[in-house]
């Protein structure tokens, strides 16, 4: 019998690089999220940045997962010196040279789904890209920042609910997202 290779599910993490405005439990749930993604055999894709995405990457690597970063920089040197971003806890960093806005577009398109945790304006940018492209998106409720504002933003945008789910439990959120991704792939 011939075994058919199926690529792993890729989940992009969209979240606050600067976490002073995140909830007090944001780091804890981000770490849980990284562990859950690995337990469900997903590849974690980040913006190769600090804060919430970094915490998810760290937990995923500590659980022996695969983490890919997309940097706004053109090289490792620029990533470190100009953007002051980390390189640890990633198996691979792709230096896009596209700045933050271009990186955000590539990040959302590189994944099967996006998870939003906490966040500020860059996270909102990634969310709106995913929303406009009807990308499956999970929002970790209660993590603070822009993620807690998204229900109201979606309502006021008057464009329907999109392909967005909300949950405060990382395990439930990951399982719901995977179910949606697999259903979408079957169609």
Question: In which range does the helix fraction lie?
Answer: 40-55%
Question: What's the β-strand tally?
Answer: 7
Instruction: Tell me the CATH architecture.
Output: 3-Layer(aba) Sandwich
Strand content is 15-25%
Which spans of ≥5 residues are poorly predicted at pLDDT below 50? none
CATH-assigned fold name: Rossmann fold
Secondary-structure element series: EHEHEHEHEHEHEH
User: Could you say which overall geometry the principal axes of the C-alpha atoms support?
Assistant: globular
Q: Structural class from helices and strands? A: alpha/beta
In this structure, how is the largest beta sheet organized?
Answer: 7 strands, parallel
Distance between the termini: 25 Å
The first-level CATH class name: Alpha Beta
The spatial strand order of the largest sheet comes to 4-3-2-1-5-6-7
- Average pLDDT level: 96
Give me the oligomer status: single chain
